[in-house]
Amino acid sequence: MMTAVIVEAVRTPVGKRNGGLSGIHPVDLSAVVLTALVERTGIDPALVEDVIWGCVQQVGEQSQDIARTALLAAGWPETVPGVTIDRQCGSSQQALNFAVASVEAGHYDVVVAGGVESMSRVPMGSSVQVAGKPFSQAFLDRYDGAVPNQGVGAEMIAEKWGMSRTEVDEFSARSHARAAAAQDAGLFDAQIVPVTAPDGTVISKDEGIRRGTSVESLAKLKTVFKEDGVIHAGNASQISDGASALLIMSEEAAVKYGLTPIAKIHTATVIGADPVIMLTAPIPATAKALEKSGLSVDDIGVFEVNEAFAPVPLAWLKEIAADPERLNPNGGAIALGHPLGGSGGRILADMVHHMRRNKIRYGLQTMCEGGGQANATILELVEN
């Protein structure tokens, strides 16, 4: 079996809703990171055998297989194919896992994985406004008429694990503090590709970080899904715009083209769970990945658990018993934003660079996904 390696991982800054990236077509936003992969590695794009791209709202500007239109917009040869996938919030992490599987099976030597979401231009929920509802009567009957809602699921998690509003707000404030510290220290600079807006403004920093966020300031926000609940805008992921991309190769191809691997994919898993509470699947996904890998929680030097809502990583911590200092060390989606189809790649890029910078051997990423699913991917640093 071939070994798949990551030789480069990049992302755009994450833009706020209607912020600096909102004037850019998602095809062109995708083209920015594809172009950056070529510029940073010197790889001939004609060598890329497929572009596997995550995107959730595949309508309007994000329809018609955005992977293909994006690579053509980037000026890549017409011989390069592209495919767009949807595993909800984990779409670009799944894109990586599909790319890795294809390399390991010997089908590809060079492949790009990544994703995009412009939530300013293609609002969340756009895809369900067309031609009926996504939940059939048979589905509703199975779950006693419950219509899955992620915010309600987050409230259910908080109640099940006995989380107070103060606890979830403390986690949210920490996310902003860690992200601000990482930004100030330049820790995101190596992974971010600056983007030039139509008016000539260059966006090079994540826009969502709210400095000085405190439990006291968050306490003033009104809950959204339950009057006496805990979930509000300040402890949920931000609506955002962004794209991410990773260049994946076989070890042999990396040697052939003179490129230095950063990390190899040690283990990749995906699992399903209850689609009503929806957001708990990162817990069994992590357990499955650790069991399959033969590694323990203590072997993992950094964990990235997507902060869709604060109760998600908090419940994960309670069940997995990982060191909280190793969880989302540079902040997460509560502070940095969550551009759905691009988030998995955004998190992977941060984790890859964090591992290289700190010489961490193993890192694990997992994220909850619509329908009650989760991917878990373990990366291993390549010693150079």
TrEMBL record:
One of the Pfam families matching this protein, by short name: Thiolase_C
InterPro entries: Thiolase, Thiolase-like, Thiolase_C, Thiolase_CS, Thiolase_N
Top EC class of this enzyme: transferase
Keywords for this protein: Acyltransferase, Transferase
Residue stretches making up the Thiolase N-terminal domain: 5-252
Enzyme Commission number: 2.3.1.16
Thiolase C-terminal domain: residues covered: 259-380
GO molecular function, one term: acetyl-CoA C-acyltransferase activity
Residues passing through the membrane, by range: none
PANTHER family, alphabetized: ACETYL-COA C-ACYLTRANSFERASE, BLR7806 PROTEIN
Homology family: Belongs to the thiolase-like superfamily. Thiolase family.
Protein name: Acetyl-CoA C-acyltransferase
Protein source organism: Rhodococcus artemisiae
